[in-house]
Request: fold
Amino acid sequence: MNSRLTGVGVGPGDPELVTVKGVNALRAAEVVVVPVMDTGERGRAEATVLHYVPAEKVVRVVFALNERTDRKRRETAWDAAGERVAGLLRERGSVAFATIGDPNVYSTFTYLAQTVGELVPGLVVETVPGITAMQDLAARSGAVLTEGTEPLTLVPVTAGSAVLKEALAGPGTVVAYKFGRRAGEVAEALRETGRLDDAVWGSALGLPEESVRSAAEMDGTPLPYLSTLIAPPRRAGGRGGKL
Reply:
């Protein structure tokens, strides 16, 4: 039988937001891999997984998750992680990889699957969707992501504030991921485009240190790296105005 690698989205941090299918996939796999930074602390994916599978089934694999400048170091870490997961697949046959959010949205799993696929002939790769941070923040803040014909634009602010400004100048709701370190630039972009008052941001969703606030409260102080922003468009015309 072919080896099977399954990327399982485990949501933004609240263990109650893992889907039934996700829990079943974690429990069915022989091994559950969770990514950790080279500093070794427990990440959100690992903390969530441990609500559903025993610790002895979980394997921590180091990824250079916080490496942004040294490409060689990042590539070396990716290769080592791929070799580790490939070895687990050869030994055990089925591996689930737990990732926060969704495995097909800015996920570590994408790069892992590419690397392992080159190392394990006949590898079967599957994904199980997960709740994203923007969905969770919308629910916790009451922000409506889209109405009628509105588009939805998702921007990683690690790509630069210019990309965010361009999106904010367009129509529909804009969601920004990983903007915490550029909170000042983000606040200024919201002011310039008239979107500050209706925007909300959140971090550590579903965790004890959760914060959900109006973007108007941002004072330029850096926020947690994984902060999420929702900036809705101005809506007029009453119910169904954009149908």
In short: The mean pLDDT is 91. The longest strand covers residues 4-9. The chain has seven helices and ten strands. Residues 71-92 form the longest helix (22 residues).
